[in-house]
Amino acid sequence: MTAVKIEASWKQVLSKEFEKSYFTNLVEFIKQEKAAGQLIYPPGNQIFAAFDATPFEAVKVVILGQDPYHGPGQAHGLCFSVNNGIAHPPSLQNIFKELSTEVPGFRIPQSGNLSKWANQGVLLLNATLTVRAGQAGSHQKKGWETFTDAVISALSEQKENLVFILWGAYAKSKASLIDTSKHAIVSSVHPSPLSAYNGFFGSRPFSKTNEELQRRGIAPIDWNLKID
Question: So which residues are the catalytic ones?
Answer without folding.
Answer: 67
